[in-house]
Amino acid sequence: MNALKTLLYFSIFKYPLKRDEIFSFSDLKNKVLLDEELSQLLEKKAIYKINDYYLCENNSLHVERRILGNSMASDIFPKAIKVSNFIAKFPFVEGVGISGSLSKGYHDEKSDIDFFIITSQKRLWVARTILVLYKKIFLLNSKKYFCVNYFIASNMLEIHEKNRFTATELITMIPMCGKDVFQSFYKENQWAKKYFSNYVKKDHQINTVKKNFLIKLTERLLNSDFGDYLDIWFMKFTYKKWKSKFKNLDKASFDIAMKSTKNVSKHHPQNFQKKVIDTLNEKYSKVKKIHNITLEHEHA
């Protein structure tokens, strides 16, 4: 039941899907099989169809919400492009991608613009600290258009948490700057294809990361033993602060939501990944109870 798994996943976000989108987020062999599954699910009333959209709740407001959110995403995207190019100019930033809801073509008044940032090796925490200080000082800590909550170093590009949530985020991410490093990133994360073998990324221009003289000079000065020391100090300082601030998270949750290593920095205090997977598994159990359809549970 590939189609049902896909629709249940996106139902968490109240986001109906069109037929071709369902196929993209599946590993079904062909669309004939998809149509057969959709027909069975409609007959069981496990799903519904409103106009061109399939959804798990018979609620037209979800369709209206999606259409409005798609329109708002189109309006805000030029802003996201400008911010991406701006972030790419910071020291030790090698790649910038748009993630979160905007990468899926949705935005509303409550949405942030989320960025996935690839940094130079051994300088992830220097790059992160500079970007966070810029946000705190010049943007008064507003993350509305500058949500920099996921960093990964260019020498360790594989995403270790491999599940439906991370696979969805990975394949829908929109690389904006750093073509070469993103090519390496996708090569290291071929595992996501086992979830969505039919997904084809749309071609678009990925800008080259260009640094001005001052940034190049900063990078040169910090490519030293002092830079090594500074990067480790920033990591330890941030980790200690987060451990104190987010005492509500148990160790397992903290290690995923606030991952802090030399090559990865995540700042997801709500542990959204686990919440999504847990909610999805609850939906699987409900489907089994109501429609007698068994779906293999996901892991976080």
From TrEMBL:
Superkingdom, natural source: Bacteria
Protein's recorded name: Nucleotidyltransferase
Pfam entry (one): NTP_transf_2
KW Transferase (keyword) present: yes
Keyword line: Transferase
GO molecular function annotation: nucleotidyltransferase activity
Domain Polymerase nucleotidyl transferase: start-end pairs: 89-137
Keyword Transferase (UniProt): yes
Phylogenetic classification of the source organism: Bacteria, Pseudomonadati, Bacteroidota, Flavobacteriia, Flavobacteriales
